[in-house]
Amino acid sequence: MTASRQVGTALGACTAVLLTGLFGLAWWLWRQRPGHQPRVVRWRRTRAALTGLGLLVIAVGAGWRLVIAIYPVPECSPSGGAPPATPVTAWVVAQKVATWAETGAGILYAQANDAEVCLSRAENFYVGVKAQNIAGARAVNLGDVVLKPELDIPKENMQMLVEHEAGHRTQWAVGTVLGGPLAFPVVYGISYFFFPGARNPFERLAGLESGGYTPEGSAPVLGPAQLAVLAALGAAIIAAPFVIRHRRAAAGARGQD
After folding, report:
1. Is residue 119 assigned to a domain?
2. Are the CB atoms for 102 and 176 separated by under 8 Å?
3. What pTM does this model have?
4. Residue 57 within a domain
5. Is residue 128 within a helix (H) or strand (E), and if so which, with residue range?
6. Exposed end of the chain (fewer CB within 10 Å): N or C?
């Protein structure tokens, strides 16, 4: 194998890990197996553009997270007083490393919107206060930082908040390692569509009480939107074998010509 080929292989493997985690690396290695003839990839330019955009976002997030590590933000000081500090364990460090880029992107977004970013020593978690997030009045977790409209809460509530968000940090870390930075938010979004609020398994794992949720059961919500999505998915599954057979037949006909 030539040096340029080795460099290309290494870059491909690194890109697969950064964007799609261990699952993506496994898929990439399977496509690189000896004797495998890769198919002509459609939308090559679109795929290359999306890959480049993803790597750029990761680079910006990781770079800004490094800036925060060099120039730390102040500690959180809510009106009710700061909750007790918790030790920084190896498991917490591993989660911070796994969510490094997402956290940097979240902090950069918060600071770009004039939010006050601070570090809560309880659970060693970053908090972006008065951050304008898409969820409005709700708190939004991005790796190792939570974006929250306000911080004027009692000490006990602050402790519960960071404990709950630390649970989401663990979920972000595991999702990033397995499937890349978008794995957890995509899976969470799909799950929340069918299991909203306190029904969501990720919220239940993070702690309903600490997250301010009132238990309301665990069964899925099957309204018109959910039923429409399930119907469309079922139709796609039924049609997929016929579409594949048609494409193979068309490809065989072109080969004979």
Report:
1. yes
2. yes
3. 0.85
4. yes
5. strand 125-129
6. C
The string of pLDDT tens digits covering residues 109-149 is 989 888 889 898 888 989 887 756 555 557 788 999 988 77
State the chain's mean pLDDT as an integer: 85
Q: Tell me the two tokens of residue 133.
A: 């997030």
What does the CA dihedral 169, 171, 173, 176 come to, rounded to 10 degrees? -130
How large a percentage of the chain has pLDDT more than 70? Answer: 85
Amino acid 198 reads A
Full domain range(s) for residue 126 = 53-206
d(CA 53, CA 105): 14
pLDDT score at 36: 65
151 contacts: CB under 8 Å, gap ≥ 6 = 76, 78, 118, 127, 129, 158
pLDDT at residue 238 greater than cutoff 70: yes
Site of tokens 């402790």: 159
pLDDT grade for 72, boundaries at 50, 70 and 90: very high
Measured from the Cβ of residue 200, the count of other Cβ atoms closer than 10 Å reads 20
Q: Is residue 32 part of a domain?
A: no
Query: Other C-beta atoms within 10 Å of 181: how many?
Result: 26
Instruction: Give CA–CA dist 167/87, Å, rounded.
Output: 16
Domain membership flag for residue 200:
yes
Long-range contacts of 175-180 (CB under 8 A, 24+ apart): 175/21, 176/21, 176/98, 176/99, 176/102, 176/143, 177/21, 177/22, 177/98, 178/21, 178/22, 178/23, 179/20, 179/21, 179/22, 179/23, 179/24, 180/18, 180/19, 180/20, 180/21, 180/24
Instruction: Identify the H or E element spanning 138.
Output: none
CA distance to 29, 77, 89, 156, 248, per residue, from 84 (Å)? 46, 12, 16, 10, 64
Confidence (pLDDT) at 168: 93
